[in-house]
Specification:
The protein contains 16 helices and 12 strands. It has 406 residues and is an alpha/beta fold. The N and C termini lie far apart (61 Å).
Length: 406
């Protein structure tokens, strides 16, 4: 008799991480310029090398790190450095002992925040477009994604909440996730948006998760952590990490900031699953945050990204079939609307059973040698878009842009 040993049916039905899958496919193809995966090439800066070698990678630090578990909330020294970061950059006072927790990157912080603020099967509000991981994480955690479809405008969250205010699914949700600056579009919430989010979440008792991993990558206006809004101080959970702005995705160090109730529960759950983060990597993260030269280096990175963004928008214009319906205001992505490009494609690449973005992405990969991500993975209202990253090497970006323009 053959016994069928079942696996998790929810996970079996979920697609793999799209941008990683495309990046892996592109890596196997000769001479493809990969603009699909957000793996920053610019960090860490070389001036950190002696500091990290002496104080982060020494034998003493290594032995101290590996001979004991970290406490659930993480290193107090790192939490103090994180608190100093918010005081210095945003004038925010955060208690490092009660309101900060170190996590395995921003992804763990998001998962913990969702679990701490919702019940099984409860709704989690996810805007469209948004980072593809959110809806998949919500589903994997046995919660229900609730779409907030943002129309184009100067205050997209305000417009969306006004349009969907009476939707019972939104009102009964436990938490709303906001990513600002945003992956994939580069959108940043403005004052009107934050007012609308504060009013809605307070009225319906909804927690707010503000994923701000691109906080320093702001072009058009200054980044505002949700905790700066007086109406969001009690119900906000800030998520941040070292992966993007410092170019250290392999460090796997992130953090969450929230009130003491949330942090205590998250620390308890973190202890159940993980038993602490890597102590040696915490030490390296602490050194980076405390290094005074990092501010100027981060500014240079943002200037580089903004220059690339402006150049791409200038080159990939309407005459080539690219529409910039959402011009990036921050982060490190391009998100053009490409229905005009689709209309110009040879017939063999036009497939009515697939989205515009999927067809264009396949065409660009096989005919231009440029890997991008089709927009539908970020929400149904983005099916006519593609996403491209700005954080590659100069050579890859320059060659990709040249190929796309010809």
């Amino acid at each position: 008799m053959t016994v069928n040993f079942a696996l998790n049916r929810t996970l079996e039905g979920m697609a793999i991480y799209t941008s990683k899958a495309i990046a892996s496919k592109a890596a196997k193809m000769p001479d493809v310029m990969n603009l699909s995966f957000g793996e920053p090439e610019f960090g860490p800066p070389a001036f950190l090398q002696p500091l990290i070698e002496q104080e982060g990678l020494s034998w003493e630090v290594f032995m101290h790190s590996v001979k004991g578990y970290e406490q659930p909330k993480g290193s107090l020294a790192l939490r103090q450095s994180i608190a100093a970061w918010y005081q210095q950059h945003y004038g925010l006072t955060v208690d490092p002992e009660r309101e900060i927790m170190v996590t395995h990157g921003g992804v763990e912080a998001i998962n913990l925040a969702i679990q701490c603020t919702t019940q099984e099967h409860q709704g989690v509000i996810v805007s469209h477009p948004s980072y593809m991981l959110y809806e998949r994480a919500v589903t994997a955690l046995n919660r229900k994604p609730v779409a907030l479809n943002r129309p184009l405008g100067e205050a997209e969250y305000s417009l969306a909440l006004d349009a969907q205010r009476q939707d019972p699914a939104l009102q009964q949700a436990g938490v709303m996730i906001v990513n600002s600056p945003e992956n994939p579009s580069g959108y940043m919430l403005n004052a009107q948006d934050w007012d609308a989010v504060a009013e809605f979440t307070q009225q319906h008792g909804v927690w707010l998760i503000h994923d701000e991993v691109y906080d320093v990558m702001a072009y058009a206006e200054r980044h505002q952590p949700a905790l700066q809004h007086p109406g969001l101080r009690d119900n906000t959970i800030l998520i941040n990490s070292f992966s993007k702005k410092f170019g250290l995705p392999g460090l796997r160090i992130g953090w969450m900031i929230a009130n003491e109730r949330v942090i205590d529960m998250a620390a308890k759950l973190h202890d159940y699953f993980y038993l602490g983060v890597n102590k040696q990597y915490e030490q390296i993260a602490h050194l980076i945050l405390r290094e005074p030269r990092m501010g100027a280096w981060l500014n240079d990175v943002v200037v580089k990204l903004q220059t690339r963004m402006e150049r791409a928008i200038s080159v990939l214009n309407d005459s080539l079939g690219y529409q910039w319906t959402r011009q990036p205001r921050g982060a490190m992505f391009l998100f053009p609307e490409v229905s005009g490009l689709y209309a110009r494609l040879p017939a063999k690449w036009q497939d009515g059973s697939r989205t515009v973005g999927e067809c264009v992405a396949e065409y660009l990969l096989h005919e231009k040698g440029v890997a991008v991500v089709p927009g539908h993975v970020y929400g149904e209202n983005s099916a006519n878009h593609i996403r491209m990253v700005l954080c590659t090497t100069d050579d890859v970006f320059d060659q990709a842009l040249c190929r796309l323009a010809h």
